[in-house]
Write a structure and sequence with these properties.
The protein has 12 helices and 7 strands. The protein is globular, with a radius of gyration of 21 Å. The chain has helices spanning about 1-25, 25-30, 45-60, 70-90, 100-115, 120-130, 135-155, 165-175, 195-215, 215-220, 245-250, 285-315; strands at about 35-40, 45, 180-190, 235-240, 260-265, 265-280, 320.
């Protein structure tokens, strides 16, 4: 009973601190009536949080403005839920306040504004101001993702298994370092289901959403991958980094088209070809092998990250208000 009393008062205190903070950084939002929408263990999500997350997601993927605002807010609420669940788990092992790796944050922020075709950091700050978002807020979100990745790495480092000899044979047998090769610019939607009935329903829903709202918005809505906030954009990938099965699927479609759902280790994958081009360049075998190893490591890492997230979410107390 004492514990419940303490937690209740902790929620109230946190809530009022939040309102004071939001009034400082964005007075226009403070005018709205703030309401707690969800409690995730000892964290809260308010309606104002959701509006700010919506603005953040729109800044990263302008296509979200094309859909109904309420639908966009639901996407933002789900995005915040994922972040709070991760943060609760991170805080059991790591301290976000003690995180200190400015170089890594700068690199990730540079990746952010390059994906948005923004020239430099100063222009990125100006761009964020259009959405009433500060660079500090973006950096804080990046810290959460970095620490989450560190947590996953520490828990699953012994389970990431890359057969380097197999990759070397692939380079040799398929002549992957020849002068002419295809480089794809891809986007993805990664989703999970527990049975065939759920798969049929979910895949149909996603395909209809792609037809109605476009691939980028559908990635925000349905993808469990970390690329979802950028509308599923992966970027440029050499065909040598892809499995034979995925390469075969991509050969069936043209630029602007997407694959059928493909079974992968952490669920199902739908790929969109944004662009592709033939490259005439000799590839250094060592560089090619390094990139293939990195691609395989990231693929396995994403799988373990989603497995662990699903596990902790099941054990998280999530209360709707």
């Amino acid at each position: 009973m004492i514990v419940n009393f303490f937690l209740k008062n902790l929620f109230i205190l946190t809530f009022f601190i939040f309102i004071f903070w939001i009034s400082l950084i964005n007075p226009s939002l403070a005018i709205q009536e703030a309401k707690i929408v969800k409690r995730i263990d000892n964290k809260i999500i308010t309606n104002i949080d959701i509006y700010r997350e919506y603005d953040y997601l729109v800044a990263l993927n302008n296509d979200l403005k094309k859909i109904n605002k309420n639908e966009g807010l639901k996407i933002a609420e789900e995005s915040l839920l994922r972040e709070k669940v991760k943060l609760n788990e991170i805080e059991k092992f790591l301290s976000i306040d003690k995180f200190n790796n400015d170089n890594l944050i700068k690199k990730i922020i540079a990746d952010f504004y390059k994906k948005l075709d923004i020239a430099n950091l100063e222009n990125f700050k100006l761009y964020l101001n259009e959405f009433d978002i500060s660079l500090d807020e973006v950096e804080n979100k990046i810290k959460i993702e970095i620490l989450w990745n560190q947590l996953i790495s520490s828990k699953f480092k012994n389970q990431i298994d890359i057969d380097i000899s197999k990759l070397e044979k692939k380079i040799q047998n398929e002549d992957l370092n020849i002068e002419n090769f295809i480089e794809y610019d891809l986007s993805e939607i990664v989703f999970q289901t527990s049975n065939k009935e759920e798969f049929d329903k979910k895949s149909k829903e996603i395909i209809l959403s792609i037809q109605k709202d476009g691939f980028n918005i559908s990635a925000n809505k349905f993808s469990v991958s970390s690329t979802s906030k950028f509308g599923g954009k992966i970027g440029k990938v050499k065909e040598s980094q892809l499995s034979k099965f995925i390469k075969d699927e991509l050969k069936k479609i043209e630029i602007g088209e997407h694959t059928r759902p493909i079974k992968v280790a952490n669920g199902f994958l739908i790929l969109l070809i944004n662009n592709k081009e033939k490259i005439s360049k000799k590839i250094n075998k060592e560089d090619l092998l390094d990139k293939m190893i990195e691609f395989e490591r990231n693929k396995q890492f994403e799988k373990f990250s989603q497995i662990y997230y699903n596990k902790i979410k099941l054990n998280t107390m999530i209360n709707e208000k």
